[in-house]
Amino acid sequence: MLNESNETSQATASWIGTISILTTTELTGETRRCINLGSYNYLGFAEGEDGPTTSDVEKCIRKYGVGCASTRQELGTSALNAELENVVADYLGVDAAMVFGMGFATNSMNMAVFVSKGCLIISDQLNHSSLILGARLSGATIRTFKHNDMASLEAKLKSAVICGQPRTHRPWKKILIVVEGIYSMEGSIVKLPDVVRLKKKYKAYLWLDEAHSIGAIGPHGRGIVDYYGLNPKDVDIMMGTFTKSFGSCGGYVGGSRHLVGYLRSHSQSGNYAISMSPPVAQQIISAMRIIMGKDGSNNGAERLKTLHRNTLYFRKRLKQMGLIVYGSEDSPVVPGMLIMPAKIGAFSRECLRRSIAVVVVGFPATPIIESRVRFCMSSGHTKEMLDKALNVIEEVADGLGLKYSQQPVDLTPVEY
Length: 416
Fold this sequence. Notes:
The protein is of the alpha/beta class. Helices cover 40% and strands 13% of the residues.
């Protein structure tokens, strides 16, 4: 499906035919225009020729080309890379930042730079797989605490400080707390003020993954630290990706100048991976400048305002129709519970038939009886789009019996 020419369709179908022994997928050749409720395009910057960043990216391609063909440590660092890192540091409010070409690798390949054998990682039990892989590759001991449960986190920290390492009871070399800003399957926002308080109390370090929160939350769009009004310097390692709010790809690590300098020297992801593509870097620079208002317009502020309004409206309407909705009120990630695994495919297909594209999630990404649909809000959604989608969702929810909520329903019309 979604092939726009017979030639492309035939080529794809031929490729599928070579693996027909492994799959029953059949391409229909049909193209269907849908309202997208599944992508991470929070601020709507993943736009085409009419987007505010497009002309900058086109000029960048003509000047720099589309690739550097070298690593940052060799000949792959251009003026654009340096400019991007300065813009990111300014955006985050930190001393320095380093960027990487892949968001997943920013977590999985860099945690080992800071912790190793003899260190302890205390990780939220619902952290992303990139954080889990990074922790395992580091060689450090890993312990988990209950999701967003500060009593559980403090118990783990207290035990670590009192008991030390197994057998020898020597003090841990370092204790690193690892959390996310917004948890992508739960839609929950980390209790960052409490995490920072516990970090300081037990003299631990903090790794904050802002993949889904940077650009999408906070009065200035600068993530969870901005949302709570905290000092960025209270977070030792600020990590995030450019793949969501900025309509690009890659990731960053921000922090003190000493920390980022050490990372530059020791990061295998930085030393051996090809430098970020120039147009990818330019897309991020342009998007960040728009969000910060440095383009001389209020375009960024309007996008943030629209995203927040869409999020509140959509969440309230889902709850009003009787669905169980997970997550924090301000989170643009909106999980609705399907519960039964058999309803996963049915919900997706029925929405698609009605021209609504959604992402459904089940085991092992979630517990087996907590299957869900994960809606992602965007500033690109209009009220008309959301109303159409909500009408479809209610129709499908009635048909599949998804109105599980037993909470009292407020029938007051939801204001947009």
